[in-house]
Amino acid sequence: MNKLSEIVETIKKYDRIIVLRHQNPDPDALGSQTGLATAIKQAFPNKKVLLGGGNAEGLKWLSTMDEVTGEDYEGSLVIVCDTANTPRIDDERFNSGAYLVKIDHHPNDDAYGDQLFVDTEASSSSEIIADLISQNAEFKLTKEVAYYLYAGIVGDTGRFLYPSTTQHTMNVSGELMATGINFAGINQNMNEITLQQAKLQGELFNRLKIDESGAAMAVIDEDLMTKLGITREQANSVVSTPGRLAEVHSWVEAVQKDDGTFRIHLRSQGPVINELAKEHTGGGHPLASGANAKDLAEVDQIFNELIELVKDFYQKGE
């Protein structure tokens, strides 16, 4: 029995299951969470399955959450999808159930949970959930489940542009499309931005600092968000924008938070940047990570460290 099948055996043992994911969810977090929860509901209709965490305003077209009480956690199975470490789980009660399972595709630096399945070769956690369904006869790949999982895969592969996309990813995506989902509609939802976000992209290009190494940095502060009338969630959604420039190979986007600190988004088209993220209370994928900075001085420090990392990468001819 493989590890995914072992997780299915665990699922069978519990009448109440709470499925969680990380804070500030992206399509893969919501897609894997809701896809798994829906598949469990359809396979075991007598089980109570709840989606935990806060709603993401810009992704309500994909999924909305349930109201989960402390009483719901008592004796429950808790499954956390797409979340590398415990501080990022979007419910601090995650460990108050009877049993905890982790399903993820990020580097396993925080091996939490009573049972876990981590596949860093998978493009997304949604791809892993699709594999769980295909490998276990108890589950069916329905059109509803496929909708969530396809959105998750498309989101985490950048519409199949990122190096994490594999032949298996494409095969799985084809199977999801074959269920009859409106994949064009999903792509359109992801492609759509507000006028304020479009204006932000223009401001971001104006503010972007580009080093001769190919490293770049943009800071989105409180003043800019207020000026454009955008939320932090909208600001976080334009993280891929600098990568559209031919001159940019790796970049930092810093978004100011309510307390004046900064959420750091690190992206790369070559140099591995997750170790840099770890040095600033973060982590993630080799080419896509998040971190934190207490002030602009630390933001500048991260940018300077990224410059050195990029220079070293290309000097070695990697």
From TrEMBL:
Superkingdom: Bacteria
Domain DHHA1: start-end pairs: 227-311
The DDH domain, residue ranges: 16-153
Signal peptide bounds: none
Protein name: Bifunctional oligoribonuclease/PAP phosphatase NrnA
